Amino acid sequence: MRFMFKIRTMIFSALLVFLIAGCNPVTTLYPLGAPLIPEDKDNFEGSWLKDNDSVISIRFTSNGVGHIAAPFWENDQFRLVQMELIVTKNKDKKFISVRIKERETWDNYYYFAQYDFSDKGELILWEPNIEAFEAAIKTRNLEGVDKNSGINITNPPGVLLKFLNDNDNQTLFKYRNPIVLRKIGK
User: Is residue 79 within a helix (H) or strand (E), and if so which, with residue range?
Assistant: First the structure.
């Protein structure tokens, strides 16, 4: 079990998904939006590198669901972890929702982050600030469960998106410490 948590943490970090080690995640029961072909599809698709040591690949199916593959080395062989990616744009902010497939079963919750692309084509990801979401649950601005292993937001996607887009909520993501992925090739 501890090994699977370590793998899950490493995998999520791969997209945010490669930084969560050492901190607790913020998750939601639902993706932030319905699968649509994102306007950024061409920017997303391809292979990505983080810190010259972690590689992930992203592709979209015709129904708008993105798929992520992340190889890792275990017991003298490569293993491949698969993730589902839902891209959502709401007002001027863009978000991703990611869930992991483990032992042929999809998780019943989604990690999420805010994203954008730099002028250089880098994928910039901002992970949730757990303290801000803890405060939102305590003040009842959001519904959720605050556990030792992280926070799970239980609001429907529309309510959560409205909260994320509120200009009064500028501390919800770690803007000072973005995760930057560089595209490999074209």
Answer: strand 77-90
